[in-house]
Structure formats: C-alpha cells, structure tokens
Amino acid sequence: MGDRNLSLQNQTSHIINGSIPVNNFTDFEDDRIVGNKENFYELIMPIISSLGIVGNIVSFVVLFQLSKSSSFYLYLAFLALSDMASLVFGGIFQWMRIVGFFQLSRSGSQFFCSVDFSCTLIFMQLYSWITVAVTIDRSIAVCHPFHVNQYCTRKRALIYIGVTFLIIAALNLPIICLKWDDENSSCVMPEFANVYCFKYSTYIEMFVYILIPVLLICIFNSLIARGLIISANKRRSLTSGNENNSCSTPIKNDSTKKTITTLFAVTAFYISAILPLLVYFIQEMVNGVENTFLNLIHLPIVAETCTLLNHSMNLLLYGFTGQGFREKFASMLCFQRFIRK
Predict the structure, then answer these.
(1) What CATH number labels 47-235+252-339?
(2) Which helix (H) or strand (E) holds 179?
C-alpha cells in the first residue's frame, strides 16, 4: 500500500533508508506535513476502515450464500475477506499505533519490518490476485462457455486462492525482523531483512500489488469485451435466421452478463484507486523518497485514501451492479425480520 514510505514520514522527520537516517527536513516542512495529515490519520482513516470492515463482513455473508452455485461469487467472498483483513492490519491497527493506543513496534523502521505490516502487504496483494482470478473466470465463461464446468469450479477456486496466498506470504514474510540492534536502526536476526525490507520489498509491492495484476486484468477484460461483442453478433444473426436455434443461448449469456457488470465495476474502481499509489512509487524511484515527499506533499494522503477506499467500497459496488447480490441481500433481510416476528 505504500505505507512503508508514507506512514514513516507522517510520524517522524527521520526517513530511514536501510540503516541510514536522513534528517534534511526543516521544522517548517514538518509542521506542514503534520498539519496536512493530522485529520487523515485521526479521523478519515478510522472512519473509512471501520465502515469498510462492516461492509466487507456483510458482503462476505451474502456472497458466501451465492457461492454455493458459482465460483465467481466464491472468489468475491474471499475478496471480501481479504479486504477486511487489509483494513484491519493496514487501517485500524495502523491508526491505533499512530494515535498511541498500542505500540507493536518502537520505531518507523521496525514497523516496516513487523508482522502486522507484513500481513497488510499479504492481504492487499492477495486482493489483487483474486481480482485477476475473477477476471479469468469470467473470461472463460464468455469466450469458452463449453469449458465452464471444467475450469470454473469451486474446487479450482479454493486451490487457486490457497496456492496464491502461500506464494504471496513467501514473498512478504522475509521482511519480518526478529531482533534489532541496541539503536533499533538495523536488523540483527535475520540480517537479510535489512536489504529485503528496505530495498526489495518496495519493488515487490509495486509489481505484485499493482503492475502485473493490472496488466493481466486489462488483457482479460479486453478479451471479455471482445467475446461479448462476438456473442451479441452471433445471437443477432441466429435470431434473425432461426429463433429456435438460439433459444437456449441468450439465457446463459444473460446470466453471465449479470456477473460481467459487477466484474467491470470492481476492476475499474480497483485500477482507478491505485493509480495515485503507482504515481507515488514511480516518483519515488525517479526522484528518491525525500525529494518526492517534499515536492508532492499531498500525494501520499491521496494515495493512502484511495487505497483505503479501494478495500472499503465493494459493498456499494456489488449493491449497485449485482442483481443477484441485491436479491440475496434483500431475501436475507426479510428472513431476519420474519425470525424476529
């Protein structure tokens, strides 16, 4: 999420790159930074995170009921769980640490090599790759409908999610430092955590969380759009030629289209929400952490806000674009009211 670079700058005027502190911020610049970000970390972050957690819990309950008949909804159910975990570790825990409710780590550098930050990265990156899986699932349903029963199954979805989680965990767990030196500036055990956490982890996050998933999502969404156009043209020609030959095709296509609308909404919002973070990463690599932060003071706030919203808005997206989701949600509410009576 970029918290490795963003949050440390919010709490201290010392930017630690590896074990070397950089102390070139002036007091005026520190005051500007604190003034700009105080409201975000004390008000906006806990509000967005709390509402997002509640929304993801509701989404998971509804989607889990729908997932009994579709791998698409099973992916979305685990997507809601991943979002919820991201908001807990990257939103609520971070907010509680910043305002002083508890300290899991004693300094900013320790936070970026901590268990809770590693969990934040794992679940955020898992979100991206579940979104990729959803896109591939719908691409098969549109472009290769006769293979849906073979590839778009609940068993394959669970295997994919499990394997992906293990791979992402293997990429991010090495940032955890188990023991620091007396000055809390360098990791003693394991020593490779110094390089892995402060140097390689940023690149891993950018590629695994943003670049590669976005590229795959764009490719498969293009294939879906192309498949829908071809399917519409074939259905139109069949309907004009012989309506009896096409009677079963529109039903299946209409069912698929209901899920495609939700998919396009989720992926479009995902790509739009992470663009500020991608810009921040690029600026950081080109200009360095310190120069980027001094010249683009508001960009970290925008990037973190959009990232939080990316993991908080799925309930609204499902509600507005998913007819099946709305119907199941309404039926569950009516059932609860009946029980109360």
Answers:
(1) 1.20.1070.10
(2) strand 179-180
